[in-house]
Write a structure and sequence with these properties.
Layout: H1 3-12, E1 28-30, H2 48-63, H3 66-72, H4 83-87, H5 92-98, H6 122-128, H7 145-157, H8 161-167, E2 176-186, E3 198-202, E4 204-208, E5 216-217, E6 222-223, E7 241-252, E8 285-293, E9 304-313, E10 329-330, H9 331-334, E11 335-340, E12 343-348, E13 355-356, E14 367-369, E15 377-378, E16 381-383, E17 392-394, E18 402-404, E19 417-419, E20 422-425, E21 428-431, H10 439-445, E22 451-453, E23 455-456, E24 460-469, H11 478-482, E25 485-486, E26 488-493, H12 546-549, E27 560-565, E28 603-606, E29 615-618, H13 627-635, H14 645-652
Parallel strand pairs: 1-27, 2-25, 4-26
Antiparallel strand pairs: 2-3, 2-7, 3-27, 5-6, 7-8, 7-12, 9-10, 9-24, 11-12, 13-23, 14-22, 15-16, 16-19, 17-18, 20-21, 24-26, 28-29
Length: about 650
């Protein structure tokens, strides 16, 4: 298939996808629970404080019409929510009819509340699934995120710890560790396994910068970058990432506990260029979230969970040799935080997407040494790479339009591309136009000094930490709790300008039909960060206790996993043509581009620029500011084809010919 034919097909995005997702590392299987398995004696006690929160939630649901909606569906005998009825299995014939309704097709459980498993609890599904939208309930009466968080805590708390150990085959406490996870509830279409709606987890969260403060869309049950809900609004809201503390089990996929999913090797191009792709997921260890912890949790003696964070941006500081420490930005100017019941939100400080760098000493706009040669330019950007990092397509020299591969081996320890299209005169910034007479390049060739102002954004990375304060010394899990909590990796990156189109939607266009050895992307691809085996920035481990470092699987921080019942049959929700009926936004790595493959979300660095063996994920090598990456990737068709068709037409002619 030639490029024009590819663009025609890519613009439609209509062909049925394979049943395997390119974004899942795997899904974890847990057994289905049969109706009638539980009685009240099987339930764990919950604290009075948690019960009070739940009672208030139930009052809210009754007042806003949710309980009436549930009663009218024939799911409950009354709106009193008898606990025995809640934990008993829903009769199969009634459940079958309910699952024919819009929004209920992808429910994976068979109880109104399944202790220990929010995703298998119909009450949680009704309130958290964006496809469930009762006509009689106004949008203002939908639950807030903190209320969904309360229900999560309650469902996790109802299951006895010994039952968790049985389900997850925990033999000894040595297999367990506390860790911070980013997580969210998704419809089946966006889960790794595509079998049912589910909670999805990762040890990496991906927030995004914006001009406006966060906005939670109660109807779509997600944060949105649309600050007002008006499609004509040209501003962008920040997207936060949500984190929680979990007891986790360290294991390998090949354990019989897990039902592994096929990876992208069969459905996307993975030649020698992608050296950071997890080619054999069985070689790595993973942390599997078992049980969420929260304040007022009797499992931790109602101790207090304290969250913390540290973020930094080195993009501007690393441009200078030697590095200028005063230009390193930290959390104070980059992020804010908030507690959402028992969850923790990392939020980029809303600000102008791009603004001049102010020298902290002189308080004036910071300028960059403009003495460089023409070969240092990459189109209109200053190029800081040591060797070519561009995959070229030999369009004219090869009848097969061969792809000249790039191994992506060089660490990016400073911004690869820097904006040099402006000039500073008398404290004012002017745009330097590129004229047809090449005057811009001629000035550069004379090696004259230019006052080039630097620009910055709020892109950064760091970690989210947690500790438990006030734990009883006799707690039965004190060995696990006393070792501390492993941090999560936190990325704050560029806005997602096409949040409703992701790599899964475009999976079919990554390889030639019937083949896995040739990519249809002339530049970049659709590989997600979830398939990358690069460890996070070492800043993540700086406060980790030594006894925890040995049990921390650093190569799988960005993996995305989920718990799912072991259902029979093929995946049912993997067709991009299927009506979604909701707006989706995510802060997990499977909807984040991998390292320059193609995008501007993250890259990799090294403590030693000559050492490619000890690389790590970092934002310090991204463009300064981020639009330098965007314009180049889009121009080379490095981003999703749905995002840059105009650029493709510019360079390749009309796609209709």
């Amino acid at each position: 298939m030639d490029r024009k034919e590819f663009l025609k097909q890519a613009a439609s995005v209509t062909i049925l996808l394979s049943t395997s997702s390119i974004f899942s590392v795997y899904s974890q299987g847990v057994p289905f629970f049969k109706p009638g398995d539980l009685s009240e004696s099987d339930l764990e006690k919950v604290s009075e404080a948690l019960q009070t929160k739940v009672d208030r939630l139930i009052d809210f649901l009754r007042e806003k019409g949710w309980l009436k909606y549930i009663f009218d569906l024939g799911l409950l005998s009354s709106d009193k929510l008898d606990i025995h009825e809640l934990i008993s299995g829903i009769p199969p014939e009634r459940l079958s009819k309910i699952k024919e309704l819009k929004g209920f097709e992808d429910f994976g459980g068979n109880k109104f509340i399944e202790p220990g498993y929010p995703a298998l609890s119909l009450l949680y599904h009704i309130l958290a699934n964006p496809r469930v939208r009762p006509n009689a309930i106004e949008l203002k009466n939908y639950p807030e995120l903190y209320q969904l968080d309360i229900l999560e805590d309650y469902i996790y708390a109802l299951k006895k710890w010994d039952s968790y150990k049985k389900d997850y085959r925990v033999a000894t406490d040595d297999e367990l560790v506390l860790a911070v996870f980013a997580y969210e509830y998704r419809t089946a279409f966006k889960t790794p396994h595509h079998q049912c709606a589910d909670l999805v987890f990762s040890r990496t969260g991906v927030g995004r910068v914006g001009e406006k403060e966060i906005r939670y869309d109660k109807g779509n049950r997600c944060f949105t970058n649309n600050p007002t809900g008006n499609d004509n609004d040209k501003n962008i809201s920040v997207i936060p990432a949500r984190y929680g503390v979990f007891i986790a089990k360290k294991t390998k996929i090949k354990d019989n506990l897990f039902e592994a999913m096929k990876m992208q090797k069969e459905r996307s191009y993975n030649g020698s260029a992608d050296i950071h792709y997890i080619k054999n997921k069985n070689d790595y260890d993973y942390l599997i979230p078992v049980r969420k912890l929260f304040n007022d949790d009797l499992l931790i003696d109602s101790a207090k969970i304290n969250f913390g964070e540290k973020h930094e941006s080195l993009k501007i500081a690393n441009l200078f040799n030697p590095i200028k420490p005063q230009l390193i930005r930290n959390s104070d100017s980059l992020v804010s935080t908030t507690i959402m019941n028992s969850s923790f939100l990392i939020i980029s400080q809303h600000d102008k997407l791009i603004k001049p760098v102010i020298d902290p000493v002189s308080k004036k706009i910071l300028v960059y040494d403009g003495k460089y040669k023409r070969e240092n330019l990459y189109f209109s950007s200053l190029y800081n790479g040591k060797s070519s990092v561009v995959e070229s397509i030999e369009i004219y020299e090869s009848a097969n339009h061969a792809r000249s591969l790039n191994n992506y081996k060089n660490p990016r320890n400073l911004p690869m591309y820097v904006n040099v299209s402006h000039e500073l005169e008398k404290d004012s910034i002017y745009y330097r136009s590129r004229n047809a007479d090449f005057s811009f390049e001629k000035i550069i060739e004379t090696n004259e000094q230019h006052n080039i102002p630097l620009f910055q954004d709020n892109i950064c990375d760091g970690f989210v930490s947690a500790n438990i304060e006030g734990l009883n010394a006799q707690n039965k899990l004190r060995f696990v709790f006393n070792r501390g909590v492993l941090n999560a990796f936190s990325i704050i990156t560029a806005p997602d300008f096409f949040p409703q189109v992701d790599g899964f939607d475009l999976q079919q266009f990554d390889i030639a039909p019937g083949s896995g050895d040739r990519s249809l992307f002339f530049e970049g691809g659709i590989t997600s960060l979830a398939t990358c085996n690069i460890p996070p920035n070492p800043i993540v481990y700086q406060n980790t206790k030594s006894e925890l470092l040995g049990v921390d699987p650093k190569e799988t921080y960005s993996s995305v996993i989920s718990n799912t019942p072991k259902t029979k049959g093929l995946n049912m929700f993997s067709d991009p043509e299927q009506e979604k009926g909701y707006i989706f936004s995510s802060y997990l790595p499977d909807l984040c581009s991998s390292v320059f493959a193609p995008g501007w979300d993250i890259t990799f660095s090294s403590m030693n620029s000559n050492n490619n063996e000890q690389i790590f994920l970092s934002t310090r090598g991204l463009g300064s500011p981020f639009v330098e990456d965007m314009k180049l990737c889009a121009a080379m068709n490095g981003m999703w084809p749905a995002a840059s068709p105009d650029a493709s037409r510019t360079f390749q002619g009309s796609i209709t010919e």
